[in-house]
Amino acid sequence: MHLFLQTFFNPDELLKAFPALLTEGLRNTLLIAGLAIVFGVVLGVLLAMLLLSHRRWVRLPARIYVDVFRGLPAIVTVSLVGLGLPSAGVRPFGRDPLGYAVLAIGLISAAYLAEIFRSGIQAVPAGQLGAARSLGMSYLTAMRVIVVPQGVRNVLPALAGQFIIDIKESALVYLLGLGLGQRELYFIAQERQAATYNSSALVAAGACYLMLTIPLTFLVNRLDLRLRTGGRKTNKPAATPAVATPAPSVMEV
């Protein structure tokens, strides 16, 4: 038991690991995940629009992209983007591994968000689009102004859930060899574990991840409940009106 505690919960190692984890690691993990989700949202909305097209030649490239990036293990995508592109002479971010890390996580996120947005947009009643078109809006304008905003509202819990996934998948970018000042949580913990042969730093990194993901998970659950109930409290039954009279329609008013 003593050996177990010394390996995973060594007080000295925990105290030495937490400062770098909370200053450099936490900041860079949120930076990578935040930029990746922004990139994923923009690309995901575009892909969702293509997936909803009535033209097969428009849907096909988007479908291939989504299936490929959802089917590949995240570690393979990170390696192909972060290590493969610079080796092939494609260096949009020069030698900065942080840019490739954001790109890799963002490409993965976009594939999942495309399906999330597609389902959200399809959940919007078809009459919304028809009404907008009858007012003279073009298809693209109606989608941008009327349909897509409602679809995004439908998938806010799933969007927040994808951000949690991006936070956890940011641990894979340690493969890219981030420089000093760019290291995320797992990179710092893995370096210390390799230097000390003690896993307490990894436990400390896990605690930092939980500090991020548990409150976000709670927020996702609350947001999902609020959207499903329309903000109504569910612990009290609705009051029964004394006299049930039919409400007048808009036309009668």
From TrEMBL:
It comes from the Bacteria. Its main location: membrane. Residues 231-253 are annotated as: Disordered. It is found in: Cell membrane. InterPro entries: AA_ABC_transptr_permease_3TM, ArtM/GltK/GlnP/TcyL/YhdX-like, MetI-like, MetI-like_sf. Residues 237-253 have a biased composition (Low complexity). The keyword Transmembrane applies. The chain crosses the membrane at residues 30-52, 64-85, 97-114, 201-220. PROSITE patterns: ABC_TM1. It is a multi-pass membrane protein. Residues 26-220 form the ABC transmembrane type-1 domain. Keywords: Amino-acid transport, Cell membrane, Membrane, Transmembrane, Transmembrane helix, Transport. The keyword Ribonucleoprotein does not apply. NCBIfam families: HEQRo_perm_3TM (TIGR01726). Belongs to the binding-protein-dependent transport system permease family. HisMQ subfamily. This is Amino acid ABC transporter permease.
